[in-house]
Specification:
single chain, 255 residues, alpha/beta, seven-stranded parallel beta sheet, 8 helices
Amino acid sequence: MSLTNKVALITGASSGIGRATALLFAREQAQVALVGRKREALQAVQDEIQKANGRSFIALADVSHEEQCQRVVHQTVEHFGGLDILVNAAGVFASGSLMATTPEKWNVMMNVNLNSVFYMMLPAVPHLQKRKGNIVNISSVTGTRSFPNVLAYCVSKAGVDQLTRCAALDLASSGVRVNAVNPGVVVTNLHRRSGMEETAYAAFLEHSKTTHPMGRVGTAEEIAEAVLFLASGRAGWITGVTLSVDGGRQLTCAR
């Protein structure tokens, strides 16, 4: 599934699924634009890519702001000469039931998890159309199933899924594919960044072994492999798909 000479822009590239995807794409010979808010973390990813003789470019941005999304797409095209693949991997997590979700928390979740995907698509699509490129969005099992106490997160990811399907129809005639990957629980810093302490996170991962039929949680690298498939020519007739990569979690009832 070589991506030789393909240009990929990856948001959330400093950690987790975005980082794993950037490293995998670079190994597959893609030229990778690393987008995130923290230069030091992005630099660490770039250093790893350079050690493997890969090519990458750092573009600092907070993707919850439309003008910054426009800027990083412009910088990527200017630096590499075009764009073939957009991977929207930036995301945040917060727990909370309906009555425990403040408008502030709601807006943060929607801005980062959902609005940023739309903001990145708008400037990227004209460039993707020139090369018959594609978009892969990182969604979640919470986009396809309802879970208690994660209201805003569930809604934001359901929005990503519907945005994926609608955009796939809108762009199909121009040769641009749009798909999403819906992970189950994956070991990343997502929950830690939300404020979950290490003891609670360890207990959450242990409990998650019982909620995923395959008896374990996933890795960022496993999700990156699915992203690679959807972004590659081997998925050339696949669009509008929300691909569950979750050890069977979407098949079960909430517990």
